[in-house]
Amino acid sequence: MEDLDDVRRVSGYVKWFDPVKGFGFVVADEGGPDILLHANVLRNFGQGSIADGSGIEISVQETARGVQAIEVLIVTPPSVGDAMPENDFDDTPVIDDEALPLEPARVKWFDKTKGFGFANIFGKDDDIFVHVEVLRRSGFSDLQPGEAICLKVVEGERGRMASSVTSWDSVLKS
Hints:
By secondary structure, this protein is mainly beta. It is built from three helices and ten strands.
């Protein structure tokens, strides 16, 4: 078992994270070697994925294999200015949705290759469109079918769509 006295808090950003491989790496603001971020550590925070470039605060520990994250403390989505435009989402403005309620939802399906998917608000049958760029702005890189999330929903030109996504667990912790 690792010595918990060697745990320290680190701020940085996500270099990359691949939910299929089950890991990624964080670059510390203070420099040094890349920090391994395992999917299980991220899941303990309540997320199954995280967008590249997201700000992150983690507890880390030096192990025989290098520095590893042992707990995710805070995730900050990448800034909107860093967002890469996505074909039919190019002209969609960033929506100030602070006043909108968070609605509990479950992911119906999401295809990262297509760049979108759908979720359903609990107790309602209508589909809510979820675009990959909204995920990225919210700090996610992917969603899994059946995953519980919270959405802020707006009425778009083609129907109801998510303007932001929050992990279910992070809402329960606040």
